[in-house]
Backbone:
C-alpha cells in the first residue's frame, strides 16, 4: 500500500484506518502485563508504542486544527524525542507506567481514530495538502512503531526463562520444504553516475532526499543475504576470536560482552538454535542469518572475502532489479529464500551497509518539531537497507534509509555481501 | 497476633489463612499492570511478592513432605536469595516477567493454600514441631513481603508523573485535628546490665537471639520520633549543605544525588508536601518525618543536639514501656502522635539506630537454606527498631531487628533521638 | 620535509634522525614527573610516547632484520594497539609505569637510533624498497605521536590547579598586532567529478588511497576557520541550550557533561579565557576557535547558517589552492589569520568534516600487524582535515585524513564552514 | 616511642624530627617518577603523602601561631578530607600533580621542619598544652601516612608488569630457618565486665575514648594469626566458590571481581606466590596470610570453624598479654611467628574484627577541622586491631582502632580466630 496511490481523501482515510487497526492487531496477542515490558533503555513497552503513535496524531494533526488533546496530562508520558514539544517522562522508565492502563489506551486510540477520520472528512481544500503530508508521515511513523513493537516484545520475552511465545506461525509448515534455496551468485554493476534518493513521486521520509547523482565504482552485489550456515562456519572457524577480522571497536564490544552469536541465537553441536516470536526453533542453514550487530556483519563479510556495500550500491541494485516485497508470509522470522536473480532485498532481513548515516547533498532538516525527525540522528549510526520480515508490508522502498548504532542487535538485521568488480 | 498463642493446629492454620488472605487484599487495589512494576533493582513487583511467598511454602513446607511443586519451571523465577536452592532469574529483571500472569499466580496461590491447609490437618504428631517452626517462619516471611509490597509499589508509582493513588485513606479525615500532639520529652534510663534478645517464648527470627546480657551506659530516649517540623527547620537552616553535620559517606551521597529532602518529599514555601500511597498531600508538622536515609537521620540527630540510639537502648525502653502497636488505623502514612509517655515505638515509622547489623554473642546461623535467612546480611547494614504504619499488625516486637543499608530511603523510616544521661 | 624527496638513503637517514631528535626536543621542557602523567584513558604519558615510538622501530624495522630488542620485557608495556604482536599493558594504566624511568627510555632511544642508522647504512639494495617503506611509515608514525605528546600533556596540566606552563611562546609578542585578520569570505566550487586521494607520488598512509573519482555538488567553502568571536556570540545567544541546533547525541553529551565551552576555555564577561601550553591567556576574537568536539562544531556551523563540509570538498579546495603550511611560528595555539584567499587550511586548527571515517572505494587493509594501522578504526569516527599548530611541520597534506570520535575535545580542532552553492 | 614519654619540649621536638625524617627515609628508595604514582582513587602518590603531612603542620600548628604558609596556592592540592578548610583538588586525580615536583616538596618539608622546631622552642608556657596536643596528633597523623605510603606504592608497583622492587630485605635470610613456628592454640577468657578504651595517660586518637566498661561473654582467642597454609587449604577446598561460607555482600564481591586469592597473591601448584615490596617470592606456609578483604577474612574464619572477634575481645587480650611490638625486623612482609603465648598481636598483620566501626559510649567529635578526624567515618567500615609489619614502630597500641571498608585489600590485613568458650 502506498498512501499516495489513491483517488484522494477516502483512500488516505482508509489507509489511516488500516494502519491504526494493524497496530492493534499486533498488540492483540499480548496481555496487559506483556504490554508493560521494557527490556532495555532504548526499547519501549507495547502499550507505549500504542500510546505514543496516538499522541503523534493528536499533537501534529488534531492540535493544529484546534482539537484539544483528550488527556493533556498524558503528554509528558508519550512524547518521545521531540525536544520542541516540552518535557518528557524518562525514556528508560517507560516500563514503569502502569497507568494509564492498556485498556485506557485502547479507548483513547478509538477516540482519536474517530476524531482523525472526522477531521479528514471535513478539512477544506486549502488545507488539504498540508493535512495530507502529516497523515502520510503519521502512517509511516506508526508503521515504524509496528516493527519496533515486535522487536521490543521479542527482546523482553527473551529475558523470561519460560520462553514465551508471541504467536504460532500462520500455516505451521511455513518454512516450505519443497523450495530449493536461491543459488548464491553475484550481480555485476558497471558503476558510473547514478541517481539515488526519493524523487518526490510518492511518500518518503525527509532523509531520503534530495534525489541526487552519485558516482559508483564497478561492483558486484550478492544475489542473496548471508545465511545461517555461512555464519555457523565463521563461528566454528573461531571468527569471534580472530582480531584481524574485526573493527577495533567491534573487537572491544565482543570482548566486553562475551559475544559468541547473534542475539537470541546459540550453536548446539551442529545445530543453530534461535529464539523468536514463535518460540525456540532450529534454524535452517539456508535462511538468512539475523540479529547481528554491524560489527558482526562487518567481520563476517571480511571472513567471507567480501565487504559490506555502501548504501548507494544497494539502492541502485534494488531500483534496477525492480525488487519488491518478497516475504514469506506466515512466519515472523527469515526463511530460506528461493527464486532466480536477486532475492531477499525486502521482507527478509535488514541489510547493514558500510555507510554511516548522514545527510544527502542539499539536505535541510524541515523546521519545527517534525524537523527533529531524522536529521538529528545523523551521527554514529550505520545505514541499513531493504526491510525485514517484521517490517509492515508496503512500508519500505528502494530509497528507504534505516539506521541504527553499530552494536544494535535487537533488530532483524543481517547482511548482503558486495565486492569490487 | 502471635502465631504461637493458640491451642494448636487450628489456630496456626487460621493464622496461615489470614496471612495469605491479607497479601491478596493488599494486592487487590492493583491492576495486573501495576503488579508488574519494579522501580529499581532491589525492589520487586507486587506479582513477584505474591509468587515468591508461594514458592516459599511449596519449597520449605510442601516439598519436604513429598508434595511436588505445581509449576516446577517457575522455581527459577521466584527463588529470591537462597543460593542453596539453585539458579535464579536476575533480580533486577523481575519486572520483565509478564508470564506467569497475575491471574495465574492468583490461581497458584489458592491451590497452594489448599495444599498447605490440607497438609497441616494431616501431619502426624511426630512431625508437628518441625512443621510448626516452618509455618511460623513462613508467616513472618510473608508478612515481611507484605510491607515490601507496599513500599515497592510506592517507589514505582512515584516514577509516574500522573501520581497514581493506591487507595484512599479509610476514614478520610484520618489526620485527627482534635488530638493534641505528644509533648516532646525524654525518658531517662540509669543504665547497667540488661537482658535483650528473644527468649524463645514466642516466634522470633534467628537474628533476635540468643538472649544475652548487655551493659548499658546511662542514657535518655526521646518520647516521640523526630517530626516533619523539626526536619523542615533543619532543611531551612541549610542542614543538607553543612558538612560538619554529616558522616563522610553521607555527605558524598547527598552531593552525588543532590538530596534536599527525604524520598517523596519536597518543601514548598512553608509547607512540606509528601507523595504517598494516598497520593500527594501536605504533611502535618507534628507527624513523624519519614523516608529518610540513615545518613539523613544521623545528620538530623546531630543538628538537634542528640544522637541516634544503639539498638539495645531502644529495645530496653520498648520492653519496659510495654509498648505495643499504636498505629493510627486508616492512613498509610505516619500521623501526629498523641498520648503520654513513650509514643510511636511501633506502627508509625521505623527508627534508625546507630547499631551496625551484626550477630549477637553466641549467634550461629542454622544450617541449610533457611540458614541463609538473616546471618549472611550482617555487613554494612544499619539496624532499625520498632515498626512502621506499613508493617503488618502483630509482625514486630521489642526484640525485632530490621536492617537496611545506610542510603535506603524507600522504607518508612524515621528516627528517635537519644542522648547520654 | 617529505621523506621521499631525497637522493636516497642519506636523506632518509637524516629525516629519521631529525624526527627522532624533534621528539626529544618536545619532551625536553618536561620533568620526569611531568612525563609520567596520563590525564585520561585514551591519553598517554610523554614517556610512553617516547618509548612506544622506539618500540615501533625495534619491532618493525630492527627485529625483521634479526636485531633483537634491547629490553624484551618492555614489549608488553609499549605495544599500543597491535593485536597481532602479543599481550599489552592496560591502556588506561600507562600512567602507572614509573619504571622504566624517563632516563632509561632516553638511553634506549639513543641506542635504537644508532642501531637504525647503522642498519640503514648497511641494508642491501634488494631490501631497500621494503626498508624505505617502513622508515617512511615510522617517521610519519612518530610525528603523529609528537602531536599527541603535546595534546596529552596539555590535558594533564589542565587538571593541576597550579596551571603549569609548558613553555613560553617564542617571540613573546607572537599574536602580531600589526596583521589585519583575514576577511571572511567564500570560495565557490562548481562541483563535478574530481579526483581525491593519494596518488602514490609521496608517502601517504594507507587510508589516503586509492586515489579515485568523486562527484561533487556545487558548494562554497569559507576562506577562514570559524573564530573565537563567532563562537562567543553563539554561546552568548544560548547556543549550548538550544536543542534545535544539536545532533541528538550531541545534546545528550552537552547535558551529561554540562558543557558550556570548548575544552580549556571559559567566558569571563566579554572575554574568552583559554588555558594552553603557554598558560592562561585571553583569546583574540579573530583567532580560530579550538578544542571543540564534533558536536559543538556541527551545532556552531548550524547556528552560523552553514554546514560542515564533507572531506572531499575540503581536499579539493586544499589541492587547488595549493595551500601549504601557514602556521604562525612561535605560539603553540592558533593565532588570528592574515592574508588573502583561503587561509588556515594547515597549521592552525584541524577542521572537523561531516564525513564519517570509512574506507575509500577499493581500499584493502594491508596484511600483518601494519595492517591494523588505520582500517580497523573505520567506525564511529569523524574525519578532520588540514592540520593544527601542534602538527609537526611537513606531516600533513591535502589528502591527509585525521579521525577522532565525535566527543573528542583534547585535539586542537576547530571548523571551517561550507554551504551549498 | 610514645611522644608523651619525655621530659618536655626537647623530647617532643626530637620525636617530631625523627618522624619527619622517617617519612623521608621511606620515600628515599623511590624516584621522582615512582613518587608520582596513584594506583586507584583512594590511594595517594608518595609525593602527595609527603606534601599533605607538611600541609598539616602548616595548617594546624604554624598558621594558628601566625606563621603564614610558604606556598598558599598549594593548599588546594594537599588538603585531604578536611571539608572545613576550603576547596580541594579531586582525590582520584592526585596522580596528575607533576607540579610541585618531588624536589620542591622536599625543600618545603625542610623549611617547615625548621619552622616547627623553631616554633616549638619558642612557644610560651601558656600555649604549651595546646601545642603539645597538636604536635602529638601531627606525629601520629604522619605515622599513618607512612604506612599508607608503603601500601600505596605497593599497589602502584603491582600494576607494572616489570614487578619493581621497592627495597631488598635487610638481612637477606631474614625469614629465620631456625625458628620453629608458633603452635596454634587458644587463650581462654572468662568474660565479665572489662574496661576498654584510652585512659588519657598517653596520646590516643579521639576514637579510642572514652574509656568505658563493656560486658564480655566467655570466649577464646587464637594464639596466632591464620596462616598462608590454612588459607591455601581453604582455597583448595573451593572456599571461594562455596556460597554458604560468605556474607551475601562478600559473595557478590567475589563474583564481580573474580577473586581467587588475596591481593598480590596467587597459587601456583602447591606453592603460594606473593608479590610485595621486596618483589615476588614464595610464601612460607606458616606466615600469616595477608592482604585479605574483610569478606575473605570472615569466610575463612567460618571455614576454619571459628569466627572473627569483636574488637573488645582483641583489646582485652592484648592488654592482658602485655603484648608489644614483635615484628621481624628486616622484611617488609609478615614472617612465620615463633614464641609461646599469644604472638603477632602487633607488627605482623592487622587483624579484621567483626566490629563495625562506631563511636564508643559518650564519644563526641571535637569541634573544628580536627573534629573531622575520625568520627565522620563511623559508617560502613570494619575495625581492625593490632598493627602490621608496615606500621611505624611505636604507632599502635592495645586501644588502637584501625578501620577500613570491607572490600579493602591493599592494607596488610589478616585475621585471628575467636570462638565462644
Residues:
Amino acid at each position: 500500500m502506498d498512501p499516495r496511490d489513491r483517488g484522494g481523501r477516502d483512500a488516505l482515510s482508509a489507509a489511516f484506518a488500516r494502519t491504526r487497526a494493524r497496530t492493534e492487531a499486533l498488540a492483540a496477542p499480548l496481555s496487559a502485563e506483556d504490554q508493560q515490558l521494557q527490556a532495555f533503555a532504548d526499547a519501549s513497552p507495547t502499550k507505549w508504542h500504542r500510546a505514543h503513535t496516538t499522541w503523534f496524531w493528536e499533537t501534529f494533526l488534531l492540535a493544529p486544527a484546534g482539537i484539544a488533546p483528550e488527556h493533556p496530562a498524558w503528554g509528558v508520558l508519550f512524547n518521545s524525542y521531540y525536544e520542541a514539544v516540552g518535557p518528557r517522562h524518562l525514556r528508560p522508565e517507560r516500563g514503569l507506567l502502569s497507568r494509564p492502563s492498556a485498556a485506557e489506551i485502547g479507548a483513547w486510540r478509538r477516540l482519536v481514530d474517530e476524531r482523525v477520520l472526522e477531521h479528514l472528512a471535513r478539512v477544506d481544500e486549502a488545507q488539504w495538502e498540508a493535512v495530507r503530508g502529516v497523515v502520510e508521515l503519521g502512517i509511516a511513523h506508526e508503521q515504524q512503531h509496528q516493527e519496533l513493537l515486535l522487536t521490543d516484545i521479542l527482546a523482553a520475552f527473551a529475558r523470561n526463562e519460560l520462553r514465551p511465545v508471541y504467536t504460532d506461525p500462520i500455516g505451521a509448515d511455513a518454512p516450505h520444504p519443497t523450495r530449493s534455496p536461491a543459488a548464491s551468485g553475484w550481480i555485476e554493476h558497471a558503476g558510473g553516475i547514478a541517481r539515488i534518493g526519493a524523487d518526490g513521486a510518492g511518500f518518503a521520509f525527509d532523509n531520503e532526499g534530495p534525489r541526487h547523482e552519485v558516482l559508483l565504482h564497478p561492483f558486484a552485489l550478492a544475489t542473496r543475504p548471508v545465511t545461517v550456515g555461512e555464519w555457523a562456519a565463521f563461528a566454528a572457524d573461531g571468527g569471534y576470536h580472530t582480531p584481524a577480522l574485526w573493527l577495533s571497536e567491534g573487537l572491544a564490544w565482543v570482548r566486553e560482552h562475551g559475544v559468541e552469536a547473534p542475539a537470541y541465537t546459540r550453536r548446539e553441536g551442529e545445530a543453530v538454535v534461535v529464539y523468536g516470536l514463535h518460540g525456540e526453533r532450529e534454524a535452517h542453514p539456508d535462511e538468512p542469518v539475523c540479529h547481528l550487530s554491524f560489527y558482526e556483519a562487518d567481520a563476517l563479510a571480511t571472513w567471507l572475502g567480501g565487504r559490506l556495500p555502501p548504501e548507494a550500491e544497494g539502492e541502485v541494485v534494488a531500483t534496477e532489479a525492480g525488487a519488491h516485497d518478497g516475504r514469506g508470509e506466515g512466519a515472523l522470522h527469515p526463511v530460506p529464500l528461493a527464486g532466480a536473480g536477486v532475492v531477499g532485498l525486502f521482507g527478509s532481513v535488514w541489510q547493514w551497509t558500510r555507510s554511516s548515516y548522514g545527510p544527502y547533498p542539499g539536505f535541510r532538516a524541515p523546521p519545527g518539531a517534525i524537523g527533529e525527525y531524522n536529521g538529528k540522528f545523523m551521527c554514529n549510526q550505520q545505514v541499513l537497507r531493504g526491510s525485514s520480515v517484521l517490517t509492515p508490508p508496503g512500508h519500505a522502498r528502494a530509497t528507504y534509509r534505516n539506521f541504527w548504532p553499530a552494536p544494535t542487535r535487537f533488530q532483524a538485521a543481517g547482511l548482503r555481501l558486495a565486492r569490487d568488480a
Observations:
- The radius of gyration of chain D is 21 Å.
- The CA atoms of residues 291 and 410 of chain D lie 6 Å apart.
